[in-house]
Fold this sequence. Notes:
By secondary structure, this protein is an alpha/beta fold. It has helices spanning 3-11, 18-29, 41-53, 64-73, 90-100, 117-125, 138-160, 191-202, 210-217, 226-240; strands at residues 33-37, 57-61, 78-82, 107-112, 130-133, 166-168, 171-174, 179-182, 185-187, 208-209, 250-253, 257-260. The chain has two domains: 3-157, Rossmann fold (3-Layer(aba) Sandwich), CATH 3.40.50; 162-260, Winged helix-like DNA-binding domain superfamily/Winged helix DNA-binding domain (Arc Repressor Mutant, subunit A, Orthogonal Bundle), CATH 1.10.10. 46% of the residues lie in helices and 19% in strands. It has a five-stranded parallel beta sheet with strand order 2-1-3-4-5, sandwiched between helices.
Amino acid sequence: MNVATSVLSRVHPVLDRRQHSAAAISTKTARRRILLVDDEAPVRELLRLHLSLAGFDIDEVAEGTTALERARAERFDLIVLDVMVPGLDGLTLCRAIRTQSANTASAVLMLTARGSESDKVLGLESGADDYLTKPFSIREMVARVGAILRRNDRIDAAGAGALRHVRSRDVTLDPERREAMVRGRGVELTKQEFDLLYLLASRPGIVFSRSALLTRIWTDETFVTERTVDTVVSRLRRKVEHDVQRPELILTAWGVGYKFVDVE
């Protein structure tokens, strides 16, 4: 059984519920655009049908090089990207989209037939927001799409309200004055340290990959790597944590990136 057939085999039990799945997120999508990158025509047809029913406009591409050209030229709300596509493979394409296109901040959902933890980590570190292993049900697919876009909407709203104070756990941040208070005391932070802490603290519990942090914090700097993120996090922890060996505020999501502790 090939991958396309295996995906289809999981879909039939939910075909009669497609209108329910569509209704669940149709009010949130407002005809947003999705770029679908998959070399298997049956999979593209199936996803186009159900995502269209859910209120999305779908553009299809069958190989990586053309997909990158489209991503450089046009803005999409979400890119659904199969790892094993001809031309540029999905991982390389995802990295290129994050650094060389009009979609550096757009949501990316990666599809793959490989489901090991290392494959998932590699996909997330390449810049994907989420990872779905084939075979999958269409109901899960549509739900994941809705969840990713809602999360990105919240992040965008936080960015649009960047002049708002942030109070989370023991941290208070004033972005106008660029002042940070931690457990009632002022802390001197560099620009990158403040921006990084602000992004994490404004979205407690949300995991950001190193690639995502690079995209959002170091937007105008070319010669930075994911190791830069680790270095700044280490410096920041020395300033805001009681014990850098057992951090309580800035937590590591092993193999992926970092998050601010959940609000209790």
